[in-house]
Amino acid sequence: FSPRFSPDSKRVLVLNGFGLNGKGRLDDVLSIDMTLEQPQVTEKISQVADGLESLAFAPDGKMAVVTCLGKGPWSAPTGFGRLAVIDLTTKPARMLYQTPIEIFPEGIEFSPDGKTLFVGCTFADHIAVLEVEGFRLKRSPYILPCGHGPVSLGLSPLKE
């Protein structure tokens, strides 16, 4: 579900679990090595969350952040979703931590310089803004109102 190529196109991360939550089991993130003659899964980040929705690679390729839906079929009883931070500099790759985000996070993108992360919070009707410091995500006090239910994002550098 929602596969993404790394910035150097050498790796593809795949969210294994069809993007569904409420299954009662934790889904894995699979890493496919695209440099092999026959690309294949070479790493697995096990049991990330019940309901993996989307992911974004940092522009430098050192980390990825996965949006995690939570427990319920369309809403988490806890009232929030999560972001899982994946360290791609280790072999095998590993999940470092999870941090809460508004309920039902879907679209996610880094700014082109990698200093900011944007997360579409579908049920909150806004885009959350997080500052990126190394592998640390720090919540900004600002949001971007965007109307009803943002579900995907895309960013590109400004052309001057």
How does the SSE layout of this entry go?
Layout: E1 4-5, E2 11-16, E3 27-33, E4 40-49, E5 52-57, E6 63-68, E7 80-87, E8 94-102, E9 105-110, E10 116-121, E11 126-133, E12 136-145
Antiparallel strand pairs: 1-2, 2-3, 3-4, 5-6, 6-7, 7-8, 9-10, 10-11, 11-12
Tag the structure with descriptive keywords.
single chain, 160 residues, mainly beta, four-stranded antiparallel β-sheet, 12 strands, globular
Helix content: under 10%
Strand order across the biggest sheet? 1-2-3-4
Which class best fits the helix and strand makeup? mainly beta
Number of helices: 0
Overall pLDDT score: 88
* Structural Rg: 15 Å
Low-pLDDT runs of 5+ residues are 72-76
> What is the total tally of β strands?
12
How far apart the termini lie comes to 35 Å
Overall geometry comes to globular
Largest sheet: 4 strands, antiparallel
Describe this structure in words.
The chain is mainly beta. It is 0% helix and 52% strand. The protein contains no helices and twelve strands. A four-stranded antiparallel β-sheet has the order 1-2-3-4, with no helix packed on it. The radius of gyration is 15 Å and the shape is globular. It starts with a strand and ends in a 15-residue tail after the last strand. The relative contact order is 0.15. Residues 72-76 have low confidence and may be disordered.
